[in-house]
UniProtKB/TrEMBL annotation:
Entry keyword Protein biosynthesis: no
Primary subcellular site in the record, as a coarse category: membrane
Keyword list, A-Z: Membrane, Transmembrane, Transmembrane helix
Organism per entry: Xaviernesmea rhizosphaerae
Name of this chain's protein: Uncharacterized protein
Length: 892
């Protein structure tokens, strides 16, 4: 009994599983069929909506076009024609909220649903907005009505604007007289969509599928905009779509079932209950039949029930196969005749009236290229009794192709005969999509390859100089960072900083093409002098850097730098022009003095600066001594800045006397620094550093300010100097704000002289310098060329600058007592001064004998230790008082 119960329970479970599997398959097929029918319904309703909207618009356009034709026959009588026809059109089409006629786009005749709007519409320009101008232009260009919108009317209605062109003569598009403008009520136009769309609370058509509808304009360069009807989410929910093409507009209409596509079939619950009931019944029946196996009547009943169930399932399966479009076939190996169901005939484009299909008929349906592979596969499946799987193409009428995927397996029927039974399904859409995907993949692969090449080129350009193909600043930084992250860091790394000498002169003299050629030549020289492991980079206009890691000893580095200097001295030919340049090199080594890349670059830059200071075309290595000098220079720079802030710079004065009478006629203002630790410092101790940090103009301004203050103090003692001379640096003279600053401090006219060093290159002065010189003369400030004869001033420069005097450097003055050639040179300078009516001042006069000689040669003013050393303000005041007492100084 236990064995029987176990067998019955197992049978019951098998029956339940089978029923569940078949029921699930049936339910899936039912759901798929329901979805197809649902999409057909939605498409049908959307088609009805689209047709209705298009019909409404075209009817209104036709009516308005008739009005335009009537007016165009006699445009001079447009008003009576409009008054007669416009009300009739509006009466027939109540959704036309207004109609207006606009000659030259100016509304003059208006018929509106609301009479209050007529006055506000009349005399309006219809082309006042860009969108309206474009719509009118389309209507004119194509001689057809044009529509755009929706727009919001002042009355609160939402409407679509229709523009119809009017010509002086019908059929003459080239002679536009005006346009007809009409506002079509959007709510009335879209009433058909609302009739089926219940999402906004509207009652849909009886018996119609409840759908959600959205409409958007895609006419602007085929770009989709937000929908003007319905919700934008409908377009992303796999909707049924249709496109409505109107002149002047292209609308995309989309629809989905109300509630989405995931709506289950109405009979889903019933199917689920039926499956559940069937499973329970099958289990129970199987259990009972097993228990009552000895009873033939119950056995017969059970068998009949199972037969009915099988028949029902077979019918359902057939229905499911029919709904899915899958065709069923079998092939008799003896006769080579196939038996098809109706769907197989449909798939292969043949009629079911043809009856059985032989292999000869079958091969006629196939594409010529697929006949042989398909038949070979069939015969192999029959002979070897193995599964059959094949994809082939069927040639349909008019040459269309259909792709079929067919599966088959050997099966032995009740009579023991072997047959091949299988199914076939249409995979045309899948093949088309797969081919499109393959092409897209190929395009994507090609684009990815091009992108990779472009990225590689971009990366190369990002790290290389386009002119010389050397590395650039970014590559240098990356290389130093990589070296710094190694185990040894920058220790053992050498950096050579190179700067071309006279490169600007090459550019200015021979042009930028020659300059570029020199840069390329330099890059070639540097590459030839280093190994492939070393980095050569161009980091500025004429600046280069070489990174060597690991670096050789200092002697080898110096030898390499000397070789580069020597090779760069050699002339370089460019387009028949000989270009000569040089190079200065600063060398820095990584280690205790440079533990990071920034310090290494700074050290090399300092060494380069020292090389240029020492005469260019040189090599300097950054050493502890140089580091100490840099530290001292930086300390000095900081102390200069602090000294300026604490007013530590003071003015001293050295008298200037008449060469004949030795009476004091003025004084030169000399700057001194009361250093808090080192005491009083002369300019030679701090001016070089001051020039490096660019504060010489500030020191010049301090000297001038101190001199003016001391003059006021001296005036309280009834002492007035005829003239004070103040040194002015080249940078201060090139200051655009110089004149404004001088006007603000009220300098007495005719009593101040600015001494300009000859190295200012007066021959090549800028416009700012020239303007400042003229402005100084206008302020009553005399101009004197200091250190004349030691610099670059030419006679032409003197003629152009027109100074008031020349000051001869002490190096030309001292040897005139012993060297006749020196006297001749000095006499020549005096003669130049006389010829240009300039005063000539000789400085460095240390003996009375020298003073007498200078007076004899023609100098007008003398300055030197023989008369007085530089004095502080109070001592100089006492000197002037004594001089006044002795000589009875005449105040100018």
């Amino acid at each position: 009994m236990t064995r029987l119960v176990r067998f019955s329970a197992l049978s019951s479970l098998c029956a339940i599983a089978l029923v569940f599997a078949v029921g699930a398959l049936f339910r899936a097929q039912k759901t798929d069929m329901f979805q197809r029918e649902l999409r057909i319904k939605v498409d049908s309703q959307l088609s009805l909506i689209t047709t209705q909207i298009e019909s409404d618009i075209r009817l209104r356009m036709t009516a308005l076009n008739g009005l335009a034709d009537s007016i165009s026959t006699d445009t001079r009588n447009a008003e009576p024609v409009f008054d007669r026809l416009a009300p009739l059109i509006r009466a027939r089409h109540a959704d036309l909220l207004r109609i207006s006629v606009a000659p030259q786009n100016q509304a003059t005749l208006v018929s509106a649903h609301n009479p209050d709007e007529i006055d506000s519409i009349r005399q309006l320009r219809l082309d006042r907005f860009p969108a309206m101008r474009r719509a009118i232009e389309r209507a004119r260009k194509h001689a057809k009505p044009s529509i755009f919108g929706p727009v919001r009317l002042p009355s609160g209605h939402t409407a679509f604007e229709i523009f119809v062109p009017i010509y002086d003569e019908a059929g003459m598009p080239g002679r536009l007289w005006g346009v007809i403008e009409s506002a079509m009520d959007a709510d009335h136009l879209l009433r058909m969509a609302r009739r089926y769309d219940s999402s906004d609370g509207q009652q849909q058509e009886a018996g119609a599928q409840a759908i959600s509808v959205a409409i958007r304009d895609v006419s602007l360069n085929n770009r989709a905009q937000d929908p003007f009807f319905g919700h934008y989410a409908i377009f992303s929910d796999n909707p049924v779509t249709r496109v409505l093409d109107l002149h002047g507009g292209r609308w995309e209409m989309a629809a989905t079932p109300q509630g989405g596509w995931a709506v289950p079939p109405p009979e889903a619950a019933m199917i689920d209950r039926l499956i559940a009931v069937s499973m329970a019944a099958s289990g129970a029946v199987a259990f009972l039949v097993s228990m009552l196996v000895k009873d033939r009547r119950e056995t017969r009943t059970r068998l009949e029930r199972r037969e009915r169930e099988v028949l029902s399932l077979s019918q359902r399966l057939d229905f499911a196969l029919s709904a899915s479009g899958i065709g069923v076939w079998d092939l008799d190996p003896d006769t080579e005749i196939q038996t098809w169901d109706d769907r197989m005939y449909t798939l292969h484009g043949r009629s079911a009236q043809e009856g059985v299909i032989s292999l000869q008929k079958f091969r006629k349906t196939l594409h010529a290229d697929d006949v042989s592979p398909c038949l070979i596969a069939l015969r192999q499946a029959l002979l070897q009794e193995k599964d059959y799987r094949m994809e082939y193409r069927v040639v349909l009428p008019f040459g269309r192709l259909r792709h079929i995927r067919s599966f088959g397996a050997p099966h032995q029927d009740a009579a023991g005969r072997m047959k091949l039974i299988g199914i076939s399904v249409d995979i045309t859409d899948d093949v088309i999509k797969a081919e499109a995907l393959r092409k897209a993949h190929a395009v994507a692969e090609a684009r990815n390859h091009a992108l990779a090449e472009a990225n590689s080129l971009i990366e190369h350009n990002a790290y290389h100089d386009p002119l010389t193909a050397l590395g650039n600043r970014r590559k240098l930084d990356r290389q130093l960072a990589e070296i710094a992250h190694t185990a040894g860091g920058l220790a053992g790394t050498a950096l050579l900083h190179l700067d071309l000498d006279r490169f600007k002169q090459i550019n200015d003299t021979h042009g930028h093409a020659a300059g570029d050629a020199m840069l390329i030549h330099t890059a070639q020289v540097l590459r030839q002098c280093v190994t492939s492991r070393d980095l050569v980079a161009r980091i500025g206009g004429d600046e280069f850097v070489i990174v060597i890691s690991p670096a050789p000893d200092r002697q080898a580095l110096t030898a390499l730098a000397d070789e580069i200097v020597e090779r760069m001295r050699q002339p370089h030919q460019h387009n028949g022009v000989t270009c000569r340049s040089g190079v200065s090199i600063g060398i820095a080594l990584g280690g205790p003095m440079a533990q990071d890349a920034a310090a290494l670059m700074i050290n090399a830059d300092v060494a380069l600066y020292r090389a240029k200071q020492n005469g260019r075309n040189r090599v300097e290595v950054y050493t502890e001594a140089l580091q100490s000098a840099v530290t001292v220079g930086k300390r000095m720079a900081d102390e200069i800045m602090e000294g300026l802030e604490r007013n530590e710079f003071v003015a001293w004065y050295q008298p200037q006397v008449d060469a004949r009478s030795h009476r004091m006629v003025g004084a030169e203002v000399l700057i001194r620094w009361n250093h808090p630790r080192q005491g009083l410092l002369a300019p030679a101790a701090f001016l070089p550093v001051a020039e490096e940090i660019g504060v010489v103009p500030l020191i010049d301004a301090v000297a001038l300010r101190r001199a003016l203050t001391d003059q006021l103090h001296w005036a309280t003692h009834n002492v007035t100097l005829p003239r004070l001379s103040v040194n002015v640096s080249a940078r201060r003279l090139a200051d655009p704000d110089l004149l404004d600053s001088l006007k603000a401090i009220d300098i007495p006219a005719g009593r101040m002289t600015f001494e300009l060093v000859e190295s200012i290159f007066l021959d090549e002065s800028s416009q700012t310098v020239s303007a400042n010189l003229e402005g100084l003369k206008a302020l009553g400030i005399a101009i004197e060329i200091d250190d004349f004869g030691t610099g670059h001033t030419s006679i032409l420069g003197l003629l152009r600058t027109k100074p008031n005097g020349l000051k001869i450097d002490r190096r030309l003055v001292m040897p005139i007592l012993t060297e006749p050639s020196a006297r001749r040179v000095l006499r020549s300078i005096v003669e130049i001064g006389r010829a240009l009516d300039l005063t000539v001042t000789a400085e460095g006069v240390e003996t009375l004998e020298l003073a007498a000689m200078l007076a004899e040669l023609g100098c007008t003013t003398l300055q030197g230790y023989v008369f007085s050393r530089p004095l502080p303000p109070d001592a100089f005041l006492q000197y002037m008082l004594d001089e006044k007492a002795r000589r009875q100084l005449i105040v100018a």
